[in-house]
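Course assignment 3, question 2. Fill in each field.
Student: A.L.
Task: Predict the tertiary structure for the chain below.
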Amino acid sequence: MNNHFKTYLKASGFLLLAFYFQSDLNAQVLKSLSGANSPQDDQNPVWVGDNVLLFSRAFHPENLGGITDPGDIWMTKKNEDGIWEEAIHRADLSTDGYDFALGLEDPLTLLVYHKGSGRNGMYQYSKFGKDWNFLRQVNFEGLETLQGQLLGRVANGGKLIFLSGKGKESYGNEDLYVSEKTGVIDWSEPVNLGSSINTKGQEMSPFYHPQSQKLYFSSNMHQGAEGKDIFIAKKTGEGWKDWSKPVKWNQISSRGSEVSVTFINENEIVWSSTMNSDGFADLMTFETIVPLEIPDEFSTAPPAISPPKESISQALPKSTQPESINPIYPKTAIGKAEIQLSQLEKLEKAQVIEPKESPVSWLVIDGKNKKQLDFDLQFFNSSEQVLIPNKDSIFVSTLVSSGINEIKVSAEGFFPKSLRLNELKTSDKTVVLLTKLEPGSILLLENVNFKRGTSELEGIDTEKSLTELALFLVNNPTVKIRINGHTDSVGDPGLNKGLSLERAGSVRDFLVEKGVEFENLRISGWGGTRPIASNATESGRSKNRRVELEVIQ
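Answer field:
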């Protein structure tokens, strides 16, 4: 099942997340974080002072990218009674891509990572009252080379950033890295923390406590790991590869997955956890403040080793695996064992098998009811439709070689939707949300553009999109549509309302020219009175400048 839609299954197991651990002194009751949690995926809590906790929430309908958005930034506050208040969406810190906060670089500067919506990298936001204003992108050499699920935190008064991601020096999947601040907006290339910390599995979400020199992180490959658990290692030398052997933090570890510890103060922590490795995470804390049983004795880690070369196969051929070799990492670890050092030379000589291309997998959904739909596909090159018979065995390489640049997804009783090749997923399902043709449904005209400050339609994509819409409405002659024009809130409200009405009129005129009955089309102009995103950011304002169709009959 696609993770985007496990959202709606998580709530059924929500109460399972209140579980108990026994200590010698008293019961330590864990609970989800009051109003901060949702049926969606809530992770990466970051404490920024003033009783404010920021975190990332994925696949929520209010995210800027809707339920397929992999992570927007949300905020919760702890009130005077110690209750975490209902979470608030921070659209001013988010895009329709993947976003997470790393923490404060200084008391007025927040670092945020964005991937999508034209912003890719690390950015500074400046605090002004209760709002965060976009400031600038920082220079972060080598950040773009880190893949996988990036998570991280600012440390040491804004002088260090610890990150997890899969890079060219990784030992396996996500590894832990550190970067040091070298200028006002300059950061050094991330350095891998070495084999004492990183394994062939996943190491994620580092939190570094500079006073104790302890590193808290999540791993599924160290001794005793069940799913992902929190481990602690202590810095033992001057270099960033000098660490003790990691110790599991039993006090907060369960059979599920624990990720992203953050300290509210010396006695209080918040982290994310799920009791089911296939489920979504909640933010967790202790019901009452209890003594934190943080390990304080650490043993020396084995000598550091270099990561395997990228050309090395991920697993030994059976014929080269001696039964007598003991794994470097324990049998209790969840995941694939580390490549045996004694076999590295043989592996370097082994033939590297290129991964086989997988066909595109589709998940077409009713955008309102979230039900899976039967659907049809049509394929187009720049000028005409191309016949490709089997929609269950479509490869991107085949589409490229056939000159395909657009795919139309349609289902009976729904508005069709067109996709470009770069919107197809190769490692996951391609999720398509369709809008039902029923009264009350609203369809955003994504590819309709106007010349700046005018109601004049602009661009080939605009003409193409409206032509396809006109054909669909001609084939559905009983449908009546209201065309709603919207602007952002910048400028004179009266002028904005007039401009939005004129733009709606331009769309109607085009559709009528293409054969749609005039009586089936009504228009309205709302100016900036109905925003769908924050007007505090350019990204939000661009979303508010839009034209929508509303089905009225």
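Instructor remarks: Residues 139-309 form one domain. The chain has six helices and 33 strands.
Grade: pending
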